[in-house]
Design brief:
alpha/beta, globular, 22% strand, ten-stranded mixed beta sheet, Isopropylmalate Dehydrogenase, 12 helices, binds magnesium ion, 40% helix, binds 3-isopropylmalic acid
Length: 356
């Protein structure tokens, strides 16, 4: 089969990790008889530098005309002085909105080989950790009305958290479906003791839950969820939450796996279309040094194979290849520990590709 992939390398370590992910994809192509075609596109800081805007319309169009999108990372201190609507982050937010990527799937998996990297007590993660956060990605406070106004107390700024029943319903369905294929436990996270939008969220999730009697649904307030994630992360299977709470919880969840350099993500639209990216940022401080960990991007490619292309055998092969390289004791700097063999970005990509 032939697949077209829009590639946004982005800024900082983006280009380096994307290079390794392509290496792995090409190996998958060789091994399983597929052809992956890449179309390189500009977005983020590099687009600002070359074209004067973060998200060129050509990039949006080309993404829409591809089977899926692979993104490295965007942003960096170089563009920090720009006003909010001109920053590189606008590229990500714009792509999410324009491509209708409403469901952000962020797994937090603790690889047994990396158990030492987990900052929690050993008992809390004994036997491994495997949870998924399903974050609503195109609504809520990120996209609600925002602005400045003059009040009696002087100038003020506001960002509105708003959710329609339809938006909650479709993300809830994605989460229930996911839970159904796993351990059948879904925790919906909100702030229904304070926020009206959360009360609506909770009632819609309950309603959708009636269609999934086999999935055990519970609700948790965001503050408690943040605590429980540290106290006893194994209690979670699938978590569903809004855009902002999901942003925060997924950074927290990544930290308990000890290695933000390992975690992939998928942002899915209605149908099979998706954008795949590591959850880490552009890490400008280590860019160009061949030390970044490409595994999160490589594992994002595995998610692409599984979710958008329906190639689960190929996806398994990529994940197994990552595991086997870890088992052989190879580590990039971010996950290095005593007695292991340190490798760079390129060698990590080479070894993983070879293991497929
Ligand atoms: C993320 C990031 C983005 C977000 C930023 C870069 C806009 O933190 O993907 O989690 O807040 O969604
Ligand atoms: Mg974030």
């Amino acid at each position: 089969m032939e697949y077209s992939i829009a590639v946004v390398k982005g800024d900082g370590i983006g280009p380096e990790v994307i290079e390794e992910a392509k290496k792995v994809l090409n190996r998958v192509g060789e091994r399983f008889g597929h052809r992956f075609e890449y179309k390189e596109l500009l977005a983020g800081g590099s687009a600002i530098d070359q074209l004067g805007l973060a998200l060129p319309s050509e990039t949006i169009e080309a993404c829409k005309n591809s089977d899926s999108v692979l993104l490295g990372a965007v942003g960096g201190p170089k563009w920090d002085h720009l006003p909010g609507d001109k920053r590189p982050e606008q590229a990500i937010l714009g792509l999410r909105k324009q491509l209708g990527l409403f469901a952000n799937i962020r797994p937090a998996i603790l690889f047994p080989e990396l158990a030492d990297a987990c900052p929690l007590r050993r008992e809390s993660v004994e036997g491994g950790l495997d949870l998924i956060v399903v974050r609503e990605l195109t609504g809520g406070i990120y996209f609600g009305e925002k602005g400045y106004k003059d009040t009696e107390k002087g100038r003020a700024a506001y960002d509105v958290e708003i959710y329609s029943e339809k938006e909650v319903e479709r993300i809830a369905k994605v989460a229930f479906e996911m839970a159904r294929k796993r351990r059948k436990k879904l925790t919906s996270v909100d702030k229904a003791n304070v926020l009206e939008s959360s009360r609506l969220w909770r009632s819609v999730v309950n309603r959708v839950g009636k269609d999934y009697p086999d999935v055990e649904l519970s609700h948790m307030y965001i503050d408690n969820a943040a605590m429980q994630l540290i106290r006893e992360p194994k209690q979670f299977d699938v978590i569903v939450t809004n855009n902002m709470f999901g942003d925060i919880l997924t950074d927290e969840a990544s930290m308990i796996t000890g290695s933000i350099g390992m975690l992939p993500s998928a942002s899915l639209a209605e149908g099979n279309f998706g954008l795949y990216e590591p959850i880490h940022g552009s890490a400008p401080d280590i860019a160009g040094k061949d030390i970044a960990n490409p595994m999160a991007t490589i594992l994002s490619v595995a998610m692409m194979l599984r979710f958008t292309f329906g190639l689960s055998e190929e996806a398994d092969a990529v994940e197994l290849a990552v595991k086997s390289v870890l088992r052989e004791g190879y580590r990039t700097a971010d996950i290095m520990s005593q007695g292991m063999k340190k490798i760079g970005t390129k060698e990590a990509g080479d070894r993983i590709a070879k293991a497929i």
